Inverse folding.
């Protein structure tokens, strides 16, 4: 899958390489992501998934190759890029309400007193809160919210700048299945209604599989890019993990057996930590 | 009562009130960020090192150098704390180490000093009635600098203090702001040490903000409340101390503490009342529908 250099392409990586110290996380990565496309990034810990997001956020330069976001180099704090972090509880006494958290996503990185445009800002924050159905607890202290409520605010915080590219770094971690579905649904709704491109780093393919267009599967410097059908095969995963991995389709589901450090489902319903459940398409 | 009225007409009392008001303003502005960053212990450490710096300057260069000594001590140690960032566990132990060392050093300097004992005692419990014009000038300069920096950097500072992961992802220089904030805090602490003493700095930088945090989660309102609480404590403490002729410390600390207790009680009552009202479940109701729509969205799309 070669990248097409175009201003319309949401993300384009060509010959991209990233080294950390003596280690090459990945190299010769070519990937073009179109507006409205949902790309899931999978792989074991330390395979450079989060680092890829840092490159797209403009926080880290590539060691080689080129990265373009809508035809331009990634810029720190760009409004065109939204970011959803892992769910992590804030201190109960954190002096922030939901709407303050979302507001920081809009202009928290800006310098100056920010006294102008307050009305417009309030409207934008309100719209973002409405998009994720969080108006009901927008004035509650963020530290008092449940994990699911918290993560809805994170989605609003990422969407408030009206981004054309949405990056998510394990946003489903430590959420139960119902809350995971809600977060995925919010991201999916945003993509459908606004054509926002999504790069979704996850350990848990299961909850996002119904909405995924393509998978970037990273293992120890090796990778595969393609549709779930193309990537999730015994042959591919065996090559990636350099061990015998079997991908089985059972009763409309895909199970991955044999990759010890394969992404493992956290709320496993069939017990085995060596399996990854991925609903079939 | 009449004594108080008489003393309020005196120039040195007015200067003390002015100095106290500026100090309380700065403490109220920085307090919510200190509390939000979990830096209460760092303030304590900074004030002890500021005390050591002031005591050292008093011993070596005399009473005129106390302000500079306090400032150098506070800013140096604040830089160390700032560079340690927000990793609380490591930071707290380093603060503990430096704090005890600074306190020991300060006591040594004080016992070696043979001058007026009021000079020595002042660094611990304050000597606000001894505020002179030079102190007011340095206070005003620090005030302008702190407020100026806050005006420019308040939003990134708030972001980096309360939501550091996200702030870093948005390109906010979290590390540099941590150090910049430490310098502001060091300068304010150094002034506080000279005016209300090392022991009382916490009463102004922490207690009003901690009290405000019990009443509101709005950063703006918390800051306004913290400034008001700090002003009430300082100005009220000075006025109440006039007639009995006692040090201001017990009055300032007492008012600040009472404010905190009241805010805690009010906050707890409000939380209980909010909890007793049945809260509309915000997310559980749409769980089933959202899973359906997620599945429904599987409709074929052109792939690239």
């Amino acid at each position: 899958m070669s990248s097409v250099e175009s201003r319309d392409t949401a993300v384009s990586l060509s010959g991209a390489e990233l080294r950390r110290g003596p280690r090459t996380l990945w190299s010769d990565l070519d990937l073009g992501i179109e507006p409205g496309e949902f790309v899931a990034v999978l792989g074991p810990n330390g395979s450079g998934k989060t680092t890829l997001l840092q490159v797209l956020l403009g926080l880290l330069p590539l060691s080689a190759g080129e990265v373009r976001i809508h035809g331009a180099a990634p810029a720190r704090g760009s409004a065109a890029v939204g970011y959803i972090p892992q769910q992590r509880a804030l201190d109960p006494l954190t002096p922030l309400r939901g709407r303050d958290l979302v507001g920081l996503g809009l202009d928290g990185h800006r310098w100056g007193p920010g006294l102008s445009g307050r009305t417009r800002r309030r409207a934008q924050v309100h719209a973002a809160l409405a998009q994720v159905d969080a108006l009901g607890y927008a004035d509650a202290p963020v530290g008092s919210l449940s994990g699911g409520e918290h993560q809805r605010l994170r989605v609003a915080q990422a969407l408030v700048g009206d981004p054309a590219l949405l990056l998510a770094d394990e946003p489903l971690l430590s959420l139960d299945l119902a809350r995971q579905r809600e977060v995925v649904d919010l991201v999916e709704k945003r993509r459908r209604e606004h054509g926002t491109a999504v790069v979704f780093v996850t350990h848990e393919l299961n909850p996002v599989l119904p909405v995924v267009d393509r998978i970037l599967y990273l293992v120890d410097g090796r990778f595969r890019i393609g549709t779930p059908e193309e990537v999730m095969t015994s042959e591919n995963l065996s090559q990636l993990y350099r061990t015998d991995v079997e991908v089985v389709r059972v009763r409309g589901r895909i199970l991955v057996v044999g990759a010890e450090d394969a992404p493992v489902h956290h709320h496993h319903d069939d017990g085995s930590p060596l399996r990854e459940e991925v609903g079939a398409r | 009562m009449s004594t108080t009225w008489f003393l309020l007409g005196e120039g040195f009392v007015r200067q003390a009130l002015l100095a106290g008001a500026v100090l309380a303003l700065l403490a109220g502005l920085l307090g919510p960020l200190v509390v939000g960053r979990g830096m209460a212990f760092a303030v304590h450490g900074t004030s002890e090192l500021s005390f050591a710096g002031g005591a050292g300057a008093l011993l070596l260069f005399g009473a005129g150098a106390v302000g500079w000594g306090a400032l150098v001590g506070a800013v140096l140690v604040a830089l160390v704390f700032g560079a340690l960032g927000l990793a609380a566990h490591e930071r707290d132990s380093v603060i503990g180490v430096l704090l005890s060392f600074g306190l020991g050093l300060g006591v040594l300097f004080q016992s070696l000093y043979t001058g007026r004992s009021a000079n020595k005692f002042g660094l611990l419990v304050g000597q606000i009635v001894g505020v002179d014009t030079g102190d007011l000038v340095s206070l005003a300069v620090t005030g302008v600098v702190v407020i100026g920096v806050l005006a420019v950097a308040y939003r990134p500072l708030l972001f980096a203090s309360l939501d550091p992961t996200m702030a870093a992802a948005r390109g906010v220089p979290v590390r540099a702001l941590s150090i910049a904030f430490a310098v502001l805090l060091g300068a304010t602490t150094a002034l506080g040490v000279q005016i209300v003493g090392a022991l009382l700095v916490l009463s102004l930088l922490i207690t009003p903000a901690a009290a405000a945090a019990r009443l509101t989660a709005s950063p703006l309102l918390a800051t306004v409340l913290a400034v008001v609480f700090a002003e009430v404590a300082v100005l009220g403490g000075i006025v109440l101390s006039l007639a009995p002729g006692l040090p201001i410390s017990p009055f300032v600390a007492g008012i600040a503490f009472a404010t905190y207790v009241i805010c805690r009680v009010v906050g707890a009552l409000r939380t209980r009342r909010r909890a007793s009202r049945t809260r509309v479940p915000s997310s559980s109701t749409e769980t089933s529908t959202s899973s359906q729509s997620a599945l429904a969205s599987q409709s074929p799309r052109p792939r690239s």
